[in-house]
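Posted in: Protein Modeling Q&A

I'm a second-year student putting together a small comparison for a lab meeting, and my supervisor asked me to include a predicted structure for PP4R1 phosphatase. I've never done this before, so apologies if this is the wrong subforum. The sequence is pasted below exactly as I got it from our records. If anyone can share the structure token output, I'd also love a short note on what stands out.
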Amino acid sequence: QSMDSTLHYIHNDSDLSTSSSFSPEEERKSKVQDVVPQALLDQYLSMTDPSRAQTVDTEIAKHCAYSLPGVALTLGRQNWHCLKDTYETLASDMQWKVRRTLAFSIHELAVILGDQLTAGDLVPVFNGFLKDLDEVRIGVLKHLHDFLKLLHVDKRREYLYQLQEFLVTDNSRNWRFRAELAEQLILLLDLYSARDIYDYLRPIAFSLCADKVSSVRWISYKLVSEMVKKLYMASTPTFVVDLMNELVEKFCRCHKWSGRQTFVFICQTISEDDCLPMDQFA
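Accepted answer (user: helix_wrangler)
Welcome! Here is the predicted structure, written out as tokens:
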């Protein structure tokens, strides 16, 4: 009985809230597909209606967000137009838990939709999440490499300027955020050129090497050693020479013992991981 009344509610045009300039008839046509029963899809799309949260379940928008990649996969990218409005509604939901859920799955959705739809419809949402609360930002940070590798090279380079913003968090005690950043930067080394690594990722890596929390520093030593390896293999040798000179200047000759200790640990990691030939290391 409740199912019947719900379906009646969905098919009642006066209840279909539309934020676009379409007439109710055009709005309904834009959400028609033939993969699953239309009534089932309509039921799902209605989960973002604020009145449902008050009468059915306060967490209903979060459930909707959690299921969205599965629904998108089932419908296929050719039917993304059915879900696009709902996705944008969820991405601007007042509850951070809803936005957080989307942030953790946006890389999966990008794979489903392909590069064109990702660039047009997901990148603006992704950019919004980058400026959100830490609870939401951690979702995009944890899968930063997975998302950026799907973008075109030019689009990907635009994010180089924003990476250092991850060093700033709402709560400075949130060291796991910086540890995750270091982990992601190791993966991102494969996506950028030697010049980009030297110009943009190197300053962030050095900052992380001097972090107050040892767990962050240990991951950062690995990051710097991988950076040395990557720059050594690049066609321009000056980058790795300049990087090593800076390591000596910044850490080996540091007036604090912790800086000199950092230098020893970085040397240990470079040596253990065979990042450089021994004559170059010497």
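A couple of things worth pointing out for your meeting: Residues 10 and 42 are 7 Å apart (CA to CA). The radius of gyration is 24 Å.
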